Amino acid sequence: MSAPPCHDGNFPANGGHDGNWWLASDGGWVMDLSGFFFGLPAGWAYVLVGLVVGLESLGVPLPGETILISVVLLTHHPDAGFSAWGIGIAASAGAIIGDSIGYTVGRRLGPRLFGWLGRRFPVQASAVRLAYAEHLINRFGVTAVFFGRFIALLRMFAGPFAGSLRMSYRRFLIANICGAVAWAGGTTALMWALGSVASHWMSRVGWILLVAVILVGLVVGHVSGSALSAKARDWARDHPDEVARATGVRDELPGA
């Protein structure tokens, strides 16, 4: 087991005798993630976070929010060559650029894009999910673009569907920027503050409580996502034609 934070309020200089952050003993993903990001050349952590968030905004099912949360927590380690605010800015930029590219691609390709996504990612981009995302964008407009940044389903598809539905780019861009900054900035500030509190407590209990808070948040997110998927399935059963039109196919509806 690696050493816990020292009682002077700092982490061990080398993360313990084996060079790993002590929190890794409670979860291998932390050790793997910290080792990967700490080994990156200066500045590349920002590029990678922005890239993952941006690709997720294009409809690629990547864990953008999970990466953002994890990397912000890693900034409390003395070996981290990146700052929390830099990560927050990178995530904001990735979200804005990714959504803007998604808007352009959706505007040009429309249903062909969603048909490809459905074939390439049949679970994350099922016909039901795609159609329900289009329904929400079509019904709530820029409001869905803004709040969609906080919802996994819309975080992936808000940009492409806004373009496909010919939403005004000026209105889309304003909502996109505001949503990206609120999501990335808010998540970064919250996780950094929680990490600071855990470090200040200087005990294993502090970090265990922090992990517990994050796990609770993930569970809440999973439950809300499952509820949204159930609502999408109910809606799709009543609107089969809209599902077919959104995806460009008329096959039997897969599950959400």
Description:
- This protein is mainly α and about 260 residues long.
- It contains eleven helices and no strands.
- α2 packs parallel to α4 and α6 packs across α8.
- The radius of gyration is 20 Å and the shape is globular.
- The N and C termini lie far apart (about 40 Å).
- Residues about 1-30 and about 250-255 have low confidence and may be disordered.
List the helices and strands and how they pair.
Elements: H1 28-38, H2 44-57, H3 64-74, H4 84-109, H5 111-120, H6 127-140, H7 142-148, H8 152-164, H9 169-201, H10 204-238, H11 240-247
Report the C-alpha radius of gyration, rounded: 20 Å
Structural class category? mainly alpha
Categorize the overall geometry.
globular
N→C terminal distance: 42 Å
> Which percent range fits the helix content?
over 70%
Keywords:
71% helix, disordered N terminus
Quick take:
By secondary structure, the protein is an all-alpha fold. It is 71% helix and 0% strand. It is globular.
